[in-house]
Amino acid sequence: MRNMALANAVATVRRDVRSALPWLLVILISGLVMMFGREIEWLFDPPAKYLPPISATVEAVMSWIADNFNWLMRPMSQLVEVPMSGLRAALDWLPWTTVTLIVVFVAWQGGGRTTALTALFGLIYVTVVGYWEEGINTLTLVLVCIPIAVGLGFVIGLLGFRFRSLRPFLNTLLDLMQTVPAFAYLIPILLLFGFGPAVGLIASVIFSTPPMVRNTLLGLRLVPTEVRESGTMSGCTPRQRFWWIEVPSALPQLLIGVNQTTMAALSMVVIAAIIGGFDDIGWEVLTRLRKAQFGQSIFAGMAIVCLAIILDRITRAYAMRQLPMASHVGLSLGKFAAGLLAILCFTLGLAWMFPEPLWNWPEAWVFYPAEAINSAVDRFVAANGLLIEAIKNQFVFIVLLPIKIGLFRAVAPFTWGFSLTATSIALLWTVVAVASMVALGYGRWRLAALFPVAFGLLFFGFTGLAWPVVMLVFGLFAFQLGGPRVGLFVTSSLLFLLLSGIWQPAMISVYLCTVAVIFCLLVGGLIGILASTSDTMSSIIRPINDTLQTLPQFVLLIPALMLFRVGDFTAMIAIVAYAIVPMIRYTEQGLRQVSRTAIEAGISSGCTPFQLFWQIRFKLAMPQILIGVNQTILFGLNMLVIAALVGTTGLGQQIYLALSKADSGAGIVAGLGMALIAMSADRILQAYLRRTD
Amino acid sequence: MRPDTAGARQDARSPRTAKISCSNLWKIYGDSPDRYFASGLGAASAQERVDAALEDGAIIACGDVAFEVPEAAIFVVMGLSGSGKSTVLRCLSRLVEPTFGEVLLDGENLLDATPRRMIEIRRHKMGMVFQSFGLLPHLTVIDNVAFPLRAQGMSRSKRLRRAAEMVELVGLDGREEAYPHELSGGQQQRVGIARSLAVEPEVWFLDEPFSALDPLIRTQMQDEFLRLQKQLNKTIVFVTHDILEALRLADVICIMKDGLVVQIGSPPDIVLRPSDDYVREFTGDVPLAKVLCVDAVMDKPCLTGTKHPVVGTDMLLEGAMQLFDDRTEAIDVANESGEIVGSLTPVQIIRALYREGEDRH
Predict the structure, then answer these.
(1) CB contact, 8 Å: A230 with chain B?
(2) Separation of alpha carbons A464 and A452, rounded Å
(3) Which of these, A101, A143, A173, A402, has the minimum number of CB atoms within 10 Å of its CB?
């Protein structure tokens, strides 16, 4: 027995040493590189002349495709433009009262009074502030996009369901479609289809199809085997079984897909406004933002919010109605159609008799106190400017700068009030080395490796690290966590960033995202914990989360920009506002789902409340929380590109610049880089999740 | 008590044309399981094939299963979870495609049937009840029951009329317009039963139909099931993991373990003459007096001339025991025509109940 124990102990130590040794090596090499290689330029920002012409090649391929498939693409874009302009003309011509009441009726049919009232107030707002026409234009794009994306998503999902071997390929494709920032593929679409609203539509279709595919796959997979078998045993042909059994059983999930697709479509339509030409609300927000007219952009932004909430509530209501416990049933199909017709005739007649205000909302009645808001904001900023500025500066100097360019360069008399001397640097590193030794002494080799790595990162900053160091550290980390495949994926992603000449901007993106994500984890985790312990807190947080998540990302920029002006800090606030939601959600959900039995077992084993929380509830909630972390990272990177609009440097800015220069190569490369970063983070976290299972 | 099943039991003993039967039936899960049958059954014995498959890490869900179910009999397949009992049932209807073997329904080999033919057979000859009911959540009770008729292409008014009869048959009249989630488990399974009977199938498959129900409801549903069978006389294959249920309902029981058949026999056979320790362990806790009928333990008639109480062959021991008093030394057992076919003494009963009966044969 003792021999066994001894052998086990030896094996463990041997395994530890095998895992720890590479780290020792990596830390040593990194130390040498950072000590002696600081003057060697290509270690930090390899000059373009040494690199393969990746983005130029992509550019060439794209323009070749554009030149040679013009005959195919242009007619296609005209084809989608026909229904679009038709619908737009029809909705534009109809009195606003007709459209409003029809939407309200549809909302009522789906979700009853609350949904109907939401729709009513939302549309009245859009009318009263005078954004009716822009709103209709946005809505048209969304309404044309939804059936295409839903149909496409359903078919792709079905294929993936039927042909299992397609799934790995499909998953990668979906990952790409959702992680490559939309700005990046706007450029090739522009090249292929030419300017016009069709570009926005196509981009929206690309972006909003994946949720439908995923939900179709999920829905069909979740049909219970016995239900499917009961269809077969009832003598269904495969087709009957599909349409009568599988589709109806999967319908609630399919409708959740429709809801997510709708929200994605709206979000993308608003973003695609950046190419202009359709005079929609997104364009309004963007131009106002560029002119720093906050009042106007708030009003336009609110109109987007109204549309978003209306679309969300209506589609969600129809999804909920499919659930067995649904309380609201609505009218039968015949009565519903009759009701629609009645509303149409009645409102048309009434609006014909009283064109003002029932057909067109009179100009004079528009309520639009944007200037008042502008001056109020100005007054507020003037009064509190010093305070706001101080908060911002402190945060930038103490947190953002060191992570970006390293303590080494960030600590200066201007920022910290002193500079680092050689002695203090030596002292700092000595402390780290001692801490590492102590950790090693206790047998905690992971901690021992973490100290120098983390401090090295802080000391040199993301942009101050030589690329071999970054690649070694992340590659080894990914390899040890997820095995050769994940390790290879992460390393080759980093290699792509390096070779395509976007290393520095990529590191800036990584830095900004890291800070934002850490902030989200800390604050969001804390809020999630609070919400899981208090029902009041939970009911306060939930609607805020709902709103933050329904908001098109664009809109989040407005308040951040209003208070903090252009810069990294503003971008970070906007990213946090968007990416914190999943962290809060999953933390609360995970903690609340911990079973009563586990908690009772903990209490009866004599846990203190502190032990109960950390050792039982938190441990058991960990898988859920990690999903939240994963989502937060993806959301953060997604928002990063949008945040580039407010002047951050990094990959987002590269994409944005490429867009304004219509440089498809640079745009695609930067977009792909962004997607690879997101997917690397995702793979690493998934690997960690698998390990903790 | 149950003349119908007792009759069927006797029929089961004296073989009669089988309604549905299977032989050499195999279902192996693994990498290309067909290779074990590359040259048909060949000379390899079943055991060799099992060993070969297990060695490769394949899973044998059903190995070399063979049985016959006579017309109007209740054939119960019983085993623990993972014993392959549900797979056998699904192989019979080709919900699961067998790796090898033969399934005969009215002499037609189902494994040779085209998909189209299979659909025809399922539409007209088979009905199935599922453990977790398998109801369609978006349809009402009446529409669920009418669903198989809809698949056949029957007109709406006609199928609703037929479905209404079925709903009445299972005692759910009044709940026609309810949705499955509004019903209790027992009621949902009644819907499942009504649906499976809607096409008037000749063969009725039931896959652990009562396992998801509370014990009290379960007994009630078993009674209901026997009542229905008395009325309908279907050929039934019934899967369960509950030995008491099996003994209570079956004409013939087939006990499975790890995909293989351990024993096939009538309920008294199973409890009195278990083929191995596995079956013995199963039946160990069974209250014998409640499952054995007098004809299973009686001896030759003792025609001493003394007048004894007379009971039918299908009386349970539990009932017979209560007829003994200080002056009764034996009971006579009479068949349906009143002829005395055997007699029973307290000693025989005690032997049977304490498992000494095994030695007698």
Answers:
(1) yes
(2) 16
(3) A173
Helix axes A467-499 and A664-692, enclosed angle (nearest 10): 130
Residue ranges of the domains in chain A? Answer: 66-376, 503-693
pLDDT over 90 at A213, yes or no: yes
Judge whether B117 is closer than 8 Å to chain A, CB to CB: no
- The matching CATH number, chosen from 2.40.50.100, 1.10.260.40, 2.40.37.20, 1.10.3720.10, for A503-693 is 1.10.3720.10
B331 touches chain A (CB under 8 A): no
Q: Which of B122, B131, B147 sits opposite A226 (nearest CB)?
A: B131
Interface probe with A: pick from B92, B128, B205, most Cβ of A within 10 Å: B128
Residue A549: both structure tokens together: 């998540």
Nearest neighbour of B137 by CB, restricted to A232, A240, A324 = A324
Which residue has better confidence, A567 or A503? A503
Give the pLDDT of residue B26.
92
- C-alpha to C-alpha distance for B283 and B293, rounded to whole angstroms: 16
CB contact under 8 A, A226 and B199: no
Residue A275, amino acid: I
Q: Are A580 and A523 in contact (CB under 8 A)?
A: yes
Give the integer Cα–Cα distance in Å for A564 and A557: 10
A253 touches chain B (CB under 8 A): no
- DSSP-derived 3-state class of residue B345: coil
* B355: nearest Cα among B277, B240, B262: B277
Q: Do domains A66-376 and A503-693 have the same CATH topology?
A: yes
Map residue B75 onto helix, strand or coil. strand
φ, ψ (nearest 5 deg) of residue A623: -55, -45
Classify residue A396 by its DSSP letter: I
Which of A229, A235, A325 lies at the smallest CB-CB distance from B151?
A: A235
Q: In chain A, which residues have their Cβ closer than 8 Å to the Cβ of B195? A: 230, 234
Task: Tally C-beta pairs within 8 A across A and B.
Answer: 72
pLDDT in tens, A298-309: 888 888 889 988
User: What distance in Å separates the CA atoms of residue B33 and residue B59, rounded to the nearest whole number?
Assistant: 10
Assess whether pLDDT exceeds 60 at residue A2: yes
pLDDT above 70 covers a percentage of chain B that reads 92
Assess B310–A contact: CB distance below 8 Å, yes or no.
Answer: no
Q: How far is A328 from chain B (nearest CA, A)?
A: 15
* Total residue length of chain A: 693
Predicted local confidence at residue B4, as pLDDT: 41
Classify residue B77 as exposed, middle or buried by CB count within 10 Å of its CB (0-12, 13-18, 19+).
buried
Q: Does A243 touch chain B (CB under 8 A)?
A: no
Domains along the sequence of chain B with CATH? 7-125+201-286 (3.40.50.300), 290-353 (3.10.580.10)
Tokens standing for residue A15 = 């395994």
DSSP B314-333: T-BHHHHHTT--TT---EEE
**Cα distance between residue B269 and residue B249, in whole Å:** 14
CATH assignment of A66-376?
Answer: 1.10.3720.10
- Which chain B residue lies closest to A235 (C-alpha atoms)? B123
User: Helix or strand or coil: residue A49?
Assistant: helix
pLDDT given for residue B336 in this prediction: 81
Residue B332 vs residues A113, A475, B132, B323: alpha-carbon distances, Å: 77, 87, 46, 11
